[in-house]
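Long-time lurker. I teach an intro course on protein structure, and each term I like to show students one example going from raw sequence to a predicted 3D structure in token notation. This year I'd like something fresh instead of my usual example. Would anyone be willing to generate the tokens for the chain below so I can use it in lecture? Attribution to the forum is fine with me.
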Amino acid sequence: MFFNKKNTSNTEVNNNVNTEVNPSASFDSTQLSQVTPANGNTQDNPNQSVFTEIEQLYAQQPFQNQVPVRPKVKRGNSRVTKEKKTFLDNLALLIGSGMGVNTSLRILYKNVKDKSLKQTLNSMLSSVESGSSLSQTMTDHNFLPEFLISLIRIGEESGNLADKIKRTVVSLDKDQRRRAQLRTALFYPVFVFILVIVLGIGVSTFILPRIGQVFSNMNTQLPAMTRILIQIGEFMSKYWYIIIPLILVILITSILVLFVFPATRKSGQWLLFHLPVFNDLIVKTEVSRFSYNLAMLLNSGIPITKSLSSLSRVHDYYMYKNYTQFLANYIQSGKSFHNIFELNRKKTNTIFPFTVQEIITAGEESGKLPEVLEQIGDKYEQESEQIAKNIAVLLEPALLIVVWVGVVFLAVAILLPIYSLVGNFQT
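-- Reply from a regular --
Happy to contribute to a lecture. Here you go:
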């Protein structure tokens, strides 16, 4: 056994540890103090967790060939990946089981496969072992969004760290589900749009030139629609090697500019926000995110102004980022939610539905704002999920109209000269 049931001196404990853990290792008095209590008593405690022994074993064993001297902190990306979420979930389980933060980080470091996350954990473990708190270390490494780090900091101060980490995992799960809903909603219309472009290019390049040759041999006046169609076919047949790459470049560039590049994607967000079906989905998704996260921060004891400032950097859409910071500034100056909603009614109505404004105002006046926000978050999350599931049904009429217009134009342009030719034969 690692512990003796009789009282032993520091020298005896040192000999036991050296013999059973690492015979060649030598420990100083600081290391020995981690194993032997101040009173020299090492009697077994029946309620003592088995993880206490594991922790003290790790404390005595040097972290050989794994964690070097603390490196210079390199700030990473606060974007939460699947690997980070799995790490946080396991960290909450280990800490909740009775392990210390240092031991938990060591164990998770050994089992992480992702190289980037492994390097970050290496540096974080060095920082924690040198005396930094877990929340401060995550802030230094930009490991998570600020509002989630605030939750972890509250957990450290209240002694309820495992529960707060579990809450961060739940928040991340909800956030990923919201983003997945938007991606699913966008997939169907984007797929149909790209399919229409591909078919249009194929028809213009391979079919229209042949139709044009047939109609050119006819000694008859062609309708305007047919002449336009023939000119498009002739142009595509001559310059297809320029037109097709140009269309692809324009399409890819438009997607990158509107939805990918941080400096310009506000334009794409504005466009989606003003489309009928997508506006409803975005509003319900962002209101759900705002309500749930603000309720979680307020229930954890974080001041409302700090909570709102943290949330202003969480939202995906710039209009919600700006409005949340607007709320934080005015509440800090002493105004209530009701005053702020009345102060800028036109802007508020585009961000929050009127019903949400009234519910938040009632919750603020009754002192039950966190509970009310949780209810709003759950309600709008369910509604956004329902819209995301039905997005294809809602957009199908508009997409069918676009396809129908193209097909009708092509059919009429081909059939009109044929009917004209048949009429000439009869005459």
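Some talking points for your students: Residues 130 and 174 are 34 Å apart (CA to CA). The chain is about 75% helix and 0% strand.
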